[in-house]
């Protein structure tokens, strides 16, 4: 299966999506029909839809979209992990087999150690009993907290979104590189090869701009713990769906086909879709 491990849908409103840049192509509805042809042209069988706002209503809406659109293979939604009733929320959403994981927009939290707050840590500890993964959406400054968190939960499956959004435009590798190497020492953590184009110069990026950063994550995680994600439609701020895919495809052209198949779907399917559920 060729599977995109990371994309989004929304019915646009300024109130619900204040993070979307004014005047950008993102200021409209982006729905399954918009993505289907783009994926079909590149032989993708489907994708994992990931939350874009922090509400239970959006998680339920994404699951309804998945019920109506078989190309949506799974949903990474949001629950209030700090809530005393988090188990009720997880139980409700997990009744739908397409609910495969949870994400919180930690990158927007002013506390760089938000991931280690006792209430949040307690919520993370409830995921495994429902067979759910956790997506780490962070900036480089939050990597130290992420390293501590994943070590506290060696049996919980984590995946790092967007390679932690390093400073690609500036070409700055350290200390991101060393912290990625440390994070990757925890075998329960995988990494999405996603979200890179929007961290580069939107109008003037070149494939070579990404090579030093790709070298780091491929060496740190190994191809067997990496999965491609488009971050569509957010990627449209800097690149088309095809350009985003081609950037990674061309980088790994030297790899055996078995490894390429894992990167472009096999690993994501195993991580999100083929895991034991209670």
What does this 3D model show about the protein?
The chain is globular. With 278 residues, the protein is of the alpha/beta class. Strands 1-2-3-4-5-6-7-8 form an 8-stranded parallel beta sheet, with helices on both faces. The chain has one domain: Metal-dependent hydrolases (TIM Barrel), CATH 3.20.20.140. The chain contains 9 helices and 8 strands. It has helices spanning 32-41, 56-68, 86-94, 118-124, 143-152, 176-183, 211-221, 241-251, 257-273; strands spanning 3-7, 46-50, 72-77, 99-104, 133-136, 158-160, 189-193, 226-228. 35% of the residues lie in helices and 13% in strands. The model has no long low-confidence stretch (mean pLDDT 97).
List the helices and strands and how they pair.
Blueprint: E1 3-7, H1 32-41, E2 46-50, H2 56-68, E3 72-77, H3 86-94, E4 99-104, H4 118-124, E5 133-136, H5 143-152, E6 158-160, H6 176-183, E7 189-193, H7 211-221, E8 226-228, H8 241-251, H9 257-273
Parallel strand pairs: 1-2, 2-3, 3-4, 4-5, 5-6, 6-7, 7-8
CATH domain fold name: TIM Barrel
Biggest sheet, spatial arrangement of strands = 1-2-3-4-5-6-7-8
Main structural class: alpha/beta
What is the name of the CATH class? Answer: Alpha Beta
- Helical segment tally? 9
The main β sheet shows up as: 8 strands, parallel
Which consecutive residue ranges, at least 5 long each, have pLDDT under 50?
none
Would you identify the CATH H-level superfamily? Metal-dependent hydrolases
Please provide the ordered H/E string of secondary-structure elements.
EHEHEHEHEHEHEHEHH
């Amino acid at each position: 299966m060729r599977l995109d491990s990371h994309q989004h849908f929304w019915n646009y409103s300024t109130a619900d999506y204040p993070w979307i840049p004014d005047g950008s192509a993102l200021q409209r509805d982006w729905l399954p029909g918009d993505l289907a042809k783009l994926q079909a042209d590149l032989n993708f069988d489907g994708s994992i839809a990931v939350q874009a706002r922090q509400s239970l209503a959006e998680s339920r809406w994404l699951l309804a979209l998945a019920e109506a659109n078989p190309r949506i293979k799974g949903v990474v939604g949001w629950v209030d992990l700090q809530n005393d009733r988090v188990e009720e929320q997880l139980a409700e959403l997990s009744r739908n087999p397409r609910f495969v994981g949870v994400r919180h927009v930690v990158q927007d939290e002013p506390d760089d150690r938000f991931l280690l707050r006792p209430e949040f840590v307690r919520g993370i500890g409830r995921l495994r009993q429902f067979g759910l993964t956790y997506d780490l959406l962070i900036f480089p400054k939050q990597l130290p907290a992420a390293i501590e968190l994943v070590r506290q939960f060696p049996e919980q499956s984590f995946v790092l979104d967007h390679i932690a959004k390093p400073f690609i435009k500036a070409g700055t590798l350290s200390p991101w590189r060393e912290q990625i190497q440390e994070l990757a020492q925890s075998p329960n953590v995988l990494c999405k090869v996603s979200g890179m184009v929007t961290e580069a110069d939107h109008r003037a990026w070149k494939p070579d701009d990404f090579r030093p950063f790709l070298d780091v994550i491929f060496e740190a995680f190994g191809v067997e713990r990496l999965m491609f994600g488009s971050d569509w439609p957010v990627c449209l701020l800097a690149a088309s769906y095809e350009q985003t895919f081609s950037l990674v495809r061309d980088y790994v052209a030297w790899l055996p086909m078995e490894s390429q198949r894992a990167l472009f779907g096999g690993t994501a399917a195993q991580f999100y879709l083929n895991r034991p559920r209670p």
